[in-house]
Amino acid sequence: MELPSESEKHTATLTTTNSANNLTNTKFKSTHRSPLKQYKRWILILATVIFFILWISPTNFLKWLHLYNRDPKIVIILAANVGGGVLRWKSEQEWAIERLSIQNKREYAVRHGYGLTIKEMPIDKRYSHEYRESWQKVDILKQTMREFPNTEWFWWLDEETLIMEPTYSLEDHIFKRIDTIVNRTLDGFNPLEMNVDSAYVDYTTPLDMLITQDCGGFNLGSMLVRNSEWTKLLLDIWWDPVAYEQKHMLWEHREQDALESLYANEPWIREKIGFLPLRSINSFPPGACNEFSDDPRYFYKDHDFVVNMAGCNFGRDCWGEIQLYQSIYEEKNRRWYSKLFGM
After folding, report:
1. 42 and 190 belong to one structural domain
2. CB 268 within 8 A of CB 199
3. Domain that holds residue 45
4. What is the DSSP string of 16-82?
5. CA-CA distance, 241 to 254, in Å (whole number)?
6. Residues 266 and 279: beta-carbon distance below 8 Å
7. What is the pTM assigned to this prediction?
8. Closest C-alpha among 53, 90, 41, 231 to residue 154
9. What is the CA 22 to chain-centroid distance, rounded?
10. Transmembrane residues, as ranges (predicted)?
11. Does residue 328 belong to any structural domain of this protein?
12. Which tens digit of pLDDT belongs to each residue from 70-126?
């Protein structure tokens, strides 16, 4: 067996030395990578999560994390007529209106930490034999007050409404300005020509009910009710079947006419009800109150809080009106990335 020559030994030694140096350099590089490369994977994961949150909307993300208020000071009440009412079943467009309305209220409630309760009124109603369908508004208010005993205010909204300015909180838009925007008497606007004042009324007491008026009188499609003993007593009297049985043939607008009658005749009720401007929580589309089409007090304008398609079931196109205001809502409230990418 031949022994390696000196030159072969020298070459082998150089090869071994170079391999060791290369291994050392590789270890050095692996342990001294730049911070960006070292955390590249985590940066990509974090960026993906942030984008996903923005894409699904921050409000839904907070809802998934259950960070919204479980004992809210304000609860929104939305009655969904799932069964289609007493007289007929709902059409496909009416189902679509219901879905849009519920989603609209849900996003707003989550955004501001309010509660939302959706009260279903199935076709076999407790009082359908009396055709007392719309009167269930009073009964639902009573039920919801028992369900949320610690809530301070309840906001009733009819199904054919859309909140157009989701950034407006009720605290900023209504309650912090209540002394400047609420009229405690009928002297500013009195479409029913009731007596403006009444004896034994104390207008210094805190308000427990905030409603609006339209061209036909009291409008209860969007109203605020405080959780108080006064409210509970009012609801009991309002819902009393004795008055209903005596007057239901005369009260064309049912529960609204009943409240108007109580307001006109009971000082203790009058002193606790305040009137908000219609457009503060209850703007109308052009088709409603069309005999007053030139009156700016009634009809929706940009930056109005809520639009109510009141009376759209009587000779108007509810679905067309909802679609119109939904498109305005979406355009006004598009997210920055939607505008950036033309989505």
Report:
1. no
2. no
3. 34-62
4. HHHHHHHHHHHHHHHHS--HHHHTHHHHHHHHHHHHHHHHH-HHHHHHHTT-S-SS-SEEEEEEE-T
5. 12
6. no
7. 0.76
8. 231
9. 66
10. 42-62
11. yes
12. 689 999 999 876 555 555 566 788 888 889 999 999 999 999 999 999 987 664 455
